Amino acid sequence: MVTAIVGANWGDEGKGKITDMLSQESDIIIRFQGGSNAGHTIINNYGKFALHLLPSGVFYNHTTCIIGNGVALNIPYLVKEMEEVMAKNVPKPRILVSDRAQLVMPYHIKFDEYEEERLGKASFGSTKSGIAPFYSDKYAKIGFQVSELFADEKILRDKIARVCVQKNVILEHLYQKPAINEEELYQTLRKYKEMVEPYVCDTSAFIQKAIKEGKRILLEGQLGTLKDPDFGIYPMVTSSSTLAAYGAIGAGIPPYEIKKIVAVVKAYSSAVGAGEFVSEIFGKEADELRKRGGDSGEFGATTGRPRRMGWFDAVASRYGCKLQGATSVALTVLDVLGYLEKLPVCVGYEIDGKVTKEFPATTSLAKAKPVYEILPGWKTDIRGIRNYEELPENCRNYIEFIEKELEVPITMVSNGPNREDIIYRNMEKKEIL
Ligand code: GDP
């Protein structure tokens, strides 16, 4: 049984917390796209963690965590992150790395930096983890698969030489930066081989066998629908698909095996980096929400950058759920809204004088103005509540209003950053998986 846990918004919806929670009942947790460019904050009995590359299932003894073929694999980062969690007394995680995953090379990180520098004000707001150059090379067929680390020396050296010709022209002429040293790169890859060797296998075969054996499997998404390169706010998107459908490719499983899709939806909006954001708020109103947001304020887990804030956007979130193919929704960070008298919800976009409930492509989106419906606040702290019926009436009304707009059942309501801060609604935990 495969369940995907994915974001319906711009990322930072709390997927890490939901994955950590559902991992208790799962056997295998897989990252299928992205790299170390976004973080999942998790608070559990071992402490507080910001995971970037490791799947959020690493905190249990019984789980196997997989870096799928679709991931941008930064090997030193993976090793560092494993050491970091073990330093906080988490038992050594059982990790498998796909032999078909490709490597984030040191020059990908450099190219990411140089390009953002070159773009100046027009930059993407990249986390400079090398992700865009990595995926560009993967699809230009000049990337390095993990399996190539195990190739004969001559084959690997020849490929390095071929790739360096191209890279060094750009380094010299576009960026005026030092060239890549082929020998140094070869030695780096040898080190990478040693570091990753204990974990490498054909993960697709491993997962397909596990599916046959009836194991419970989670696919953990990074970022959200609105950062998907096809369906997001292009070009201010990420470079790999953030959709559950891509889980089939990025993990190497048949698409029909993904039976359930939990879209994680945040009770208000937040985004990092540049791009269209229709229900964005500014000034004091935004500062207040930012300060209270998440578990310790809305600052990116990778960069520490302040997140952009906004009211709940039903147009974007319904679209986000639809493209994910959500079978249920986990509504997160609801507790943060307990200070507000009134809650604006964006229920439509006004574009060229017409109101629409459909999320358009970027050129139209750039012209969209939010149409709000105002709901009354509940003005109480809802943390600690475990039964849906005990939530204040206005809070339940907010949830049910959002559910109607999303057209997907909200089965989980998260009212705090900890593992146990969760309310199951109309469905038991085991039915969600
Ligand atoms: P992810 O990338 O989707 O896993 O999300 P992040 O970890 O980047 O951001 C979510 C933030 O919200 C983290 O700081 C979480 O600890 C926190 N968080 C998750 N769920 C809740 C919740 O229900 N209430 C509060 N207050 N914080 C939450």
Supply the key terms:
globular, binds guanosine-5'-diphosphate, 21 strands, ten-stranded mixed sheet, four-stranded mixed sheet, alpha/beta, 433 residues
Please write out the topology.
Layout: E1 2-7, H1 15-23, E2 28-31, E3 40-44, E4 47-51, E5 64-67, E6 72-73, H2 75-87, E7 94-98, E8 102-103, H3 106-119, H4 131-139, H5 153-175, H6 182-196, E9 200-201, H7 203-212, E10 217-224, H8 244-251, E11 258-266, E12 269-271, E13 280-281, H9 283-292, E14 308-310, E15 312-313, H10 314-324, E16 328-332, E17 342-351, E18 354-356, H11 362-365, E19 369-376, H12 393-406, E20 410-414, E21 422-424, H13 429-432
Parallel strand pairs: 1-10, 1-11, 2-5, 2-10, 5-7, 6-8, 7-9, 11-16, 15-17, 16-20
Antiparallel strand pairs: 3-4, 12-14, 13-14, 17-18, 17-19, 20-21
Helix pairs in contact: 3-4, 5-6
Bound molecules: guanosine-5'-diphosphate (GDP).
Structure commentary:
The chain has helices at 15-23, 75-87, 106-119, 131-139, 153-175, 182-196, 203-212, 244-251, 283-292, 314-324, 362-365, 393-406, 429-432; strands at residues 2-7, 28-31, 40-44, 47-51, 64-67, 72-73, 94-98, 102-103, 200-201, 217-224, 258-266, 269-271, 280-281, 308-310, 312-313, 328-332, 342-351, 354-356, 369-376, 410-414, 422-424. With 433 residues, the chain is of the alpha/beta class. Strands 9-7-5-2-10-1-11-16-20-21 form a 10-stranded mixed β-sheet, with helices on both faces. Strands 15, 17, 18 and 19 form a 4-stranded mixed β-sheet that branches. A 3-stranded antiparallel β-sheet has the order 12-14-13, with helices on one face. A hairpin with a 7-residue loop joins strand 20 and strand 21 (422-424). Helix 3 (106-119) crosses helix 4 and helix 5 packs across helix 6. It is globular. The mean pLDDT is 95. Residues 7, 11-17, 38-41, 43, 294-295, 301, 332-333, 335-336, 414-417, 421 line the site of guanosine-5'-diphosphate.
